[in-house]
Amino acid sequence: MSTETAKPPLSAKKPPAKRRPAKVESSWSIMDRIGLGLAWAAGISLCVVAGLIVVYMAYKGIQYVSWDMITSAPEASLDQSATGGFLDPILGTLLLTTIGIVIAIPIGVAVAVWLTEYGRPSGLARAVESGVEIVAGTPSIVLAIFGLLIFQQTFMGLFSFTAEGGAVFGRSFIAAGAMMSIVALPMIIGSTREALMSIPRHVREASYALGKDKATTIRRVLLPSARSGIATGATLGMGRIAGDTAIVVILLGASMTISPEGSGPFGLLKGTGSTLTSYVYNNSPAGEGNAPEKAYAAAFVLLLIVIVLNALVGLIGRRNKPQWN
Amino acid sequence: MELKQEPHNGSAPAGAAVPPLRRIVIEAETAPIHVGDRIIDQEAFPDPADGALIDQEAESAWVEQRMRTEALSIAYGGKVAVNEVSLEVNSGEVLALIGPSGCGKTTLLRSLNRLVELTPAARRTGRIMLDGESVDEFDVTHLRSRVGMLFQQPNPFPMSIFDNVAYGLRERGSKRPRKKELEPIVVDALERAGLWDEVSKNLNHPALALSGGQQQRLCIARSLAVSPEVLLLDEPCSALDPISTAIIEETIVGLRSEVAIVIVTHNLQQASRVADRVAFMYLGDMVECGAAGQVFGAPLAERTKEYIGGGFG
Predict the structure, then answer these.
(1) DSSP code of B60?
(2) Is B149 an interface residue toward A (CB < 8 Å)?
């Protein structure tokens, strides 16, 4: 009696959930099973690497970071204990990211709209596409050098400090932000295009069928539908900007603090500064500061910013995305 | 109740070709029409011809020609999709376009509001008239606000229910009408589409949160808000469940007194339920066009007979 009543729930619950997949795999060839094992290993090791980075940086960062460090400006001093914190680099990162993304969003969205909704002549569309790919594949150090070349031209003198002899410095928040926008551009174009292409054709036609022209359809239906895609691309781009070092080192000037060039907001944009990446570089044993604990603390803050941005990407991507059948 | 479409091989017994449903719809003209589990009372129709749904002579007294195609041909590249079709679209009645897949029904429908021009390879010859004027004379946006369209998939825009219905009314000129001015039109359109009772309390909710059937009725309301003279329906129920289908059909039948309706459908039962006139197309040709009772009951052409037989039997 007791064995009879105990058995059915056990056998009814377990086999469909667990044994069936094992049976399927046991019939696989040895190569397939090795392949499956490697796929598992690859996935898990990636998680391990990511976890190690975060845990190590958190361990080192929390050890050294302090409220004081985040809220005080860097000071030039030979005494390590008197070199201050990294408030300016944090502000610099935020400012530079904002400038870069503000320039990149309209251009990126415009390119994506043109590619998906117009894209004619097709030769030009292909050229634009490969242009985007080339920009995406260009190392940021190359963009930085190129940017310096442009912003050192005399007619670009408006955007940075001009020395008495007329030589243009070419390094400023504007110069770095403009080049940073190019770093973010491919992300925005890519994810906006994807969002636009996922809108079914009949949704566009429904707008046309109500007597709307293409411009109205793009402005009132397509762009609002692609909003989450645009936001995803923008956030990814912000992550790229916040994490880029080469453009900052070359184009933002070498000052540790934010040093406006003249008064007002435009003076700030014309001025030089630093970001968390350049701060980490300058303080790490690789740079000249040789203050690894400050580098760790700043790197931890930077990592937090990037992780928050990535979390936002996931959040935005899941919400507000219109779903048609 | 979906009837299976059996392969037609001509060997079906003659008696089996006429299912009871068709008899109800076509022969018992004054009986209520069963639409799913609902009953549409024919007396409720604003029909001067004593509630007779398919009485051509009586109807011709009050139907009015809205659109007309004259020897209309449309080709995609070298492939002819619609071949020399002449057709009338009248207000006060529902015209159903039926025929096998790829016969050109949808192309014909999309040509009426010039949506077919969005396909770069499409070439058109012949004339399409709206109220005696060639559609080419119209500004295309103006034409489309007079000839509305509903699609296979419900496709509300990602905005609120109110904004969806108001979409067609806004940005017509440089001045953007205020919400207060639009409200009566939006409410009226939702009422005519039979959706008002369900959404009256949440006009600001996102339209995409509605069910599929509600979304499709919202799309009807969206089209009605710009007061079109002709409404083109491209298999409007193909993505919907039977109950939503029945409600949409009821809405269509209710609207036929105010707007000329052309419906493309693969569902012959649906055509017999909602249509006053039926046009059968085959490989781009208009094979037969006549009163629904005649086309379904006593088709003239052999092709129509075969198709109807296959569809119903």
Answers:
(1) T
(2) yes
